[in-house]
Amino acid sequence: MLGGISIWQLLIVLGIIILIFGTKKLRNVGGDLGGALKGFKKAMHEDDDKDKNDDANQRHVSHEEPGDTYDVKPEQRTEDRAEHRDERK
Description:
single chain; about 90 residues
């Protein structure tokens, strides 16, 4: 028993579907479904390969290497901001 449905009931339903659609139509649907699954698996495999190649091609940065440093000016000191606010009043 399959959840209250017997094998005979499944065979009867399958027979009715074959009578309605015909074997050629069902074969075409099965082929289309198989082709779609193949395409999906191929796309997933290609995407995984692309991700692996992207990860391998990334440059590894070492923070121990000497490099150029740049000094950055602070925007404004808090005292300057307070004076600026007082001037606006």
